[in-house]
Amino acid sequence: MADLNQEQQRELVRDRFTRTAEVFGSAVMQTRTVEAEILAEMVAAKESDCAVDLASGTGALALAFARHVRWIIGLDLTPAMLAVAQRSAREANARNVAFAIGNAQGIPFPDESLDLALSSYALHHVPEPGRVIGEMSRVLKRGGRAGIIDIFVQEDRRSAEMHDRIERVRDPSHVRTLAQSEFASFFSAHHLRITGTHVEEHPATFDQWMHNAGWDSSDPEYVETRRLMEETIPDDLAAFHPRYSVTRAAGSDEVPGIEMVNAVVFFSAEKIG
């Protein structure tokens, strides 16, 4: 796929997440709420904090953080995602959370104005992830905290390339997944001192993973993503830990399912300059 400019990439993200807003929202709410509690502890969220959640999607992270902070605003490019987030906020009667159209690469807050800047599962969708981390640092007060959750790749180049190849077929808005060392480099370059790192592995089925992206088993995107994933079963090159399911009935002609793991990394950091 040819490289896209910034606006083309934003339009691709809007299109993909407009299509999947409802199914994505229902699929991630429980997991993201649990993850938010982990991140809230890592960044020492407190009642006096004013916070922003970048690329907030359907609002699960922001809604969970609303229980810990003074107020939080979730910004996202996709109106359909924000509509789900706003509905969830109304249903939860969360009065200290708001959602608005906004770009993570140009946060609409003044320098040194916020206590917390958060992002979950967003950086692999942007061409310049370092710019987003730089914006997070810019809006934070000295001593303010940044919190990021995202997928990550192995440091090995071949593994990272195969991981991204699979992700791009599944989701054309995917740009590139960072290795943990790259996250650390971006933090350091923008005066953010890492205060905590945590890794979790989430077991999943391939079918559910594809369903969350809006694909059915008859779609070419599903077929090609499965083919690539199956290629990595012998050597786990892309680090999804895929294996065929053994739960199908004996003698069945049904194609076996694939079980896999999504690994995510949590970072907390403090602004020191």
Tell me what you see in this structure:
The chain is α/β, with parallel strands linked by helices. The chain folds into 2 domains: 6-157 and 171-203 and 262-271, Vaccinia Virus protein VP39 (Rossmann fold, 3-Layer(aba) Sandwich), CATH 3.40.50.150; 204-259, no CATH class. The protein has 8 helices and 8 strands; from the N terminus they run αβαβαββαβααβααββ. It has helices at 6-42, 60-65, 79-91, 129-139, 157-170, 180-189, 206-212, 220-231, and strands at residues 50-54, 71-76, 97-101, 114-120, 140-151, 192-205, 243-244, 258-271. Strands 1, 2, 3, 4, 5, 6, 7 and 8 form an 8-stranded mixed beta sheet that branches. β1 (50-54), α2 and β2 form a beta-alpha-beta unit. The radius of gyration is 19 Å and the shape is globular. It starts with 5 loop residues before the first helix and ends with a strand.
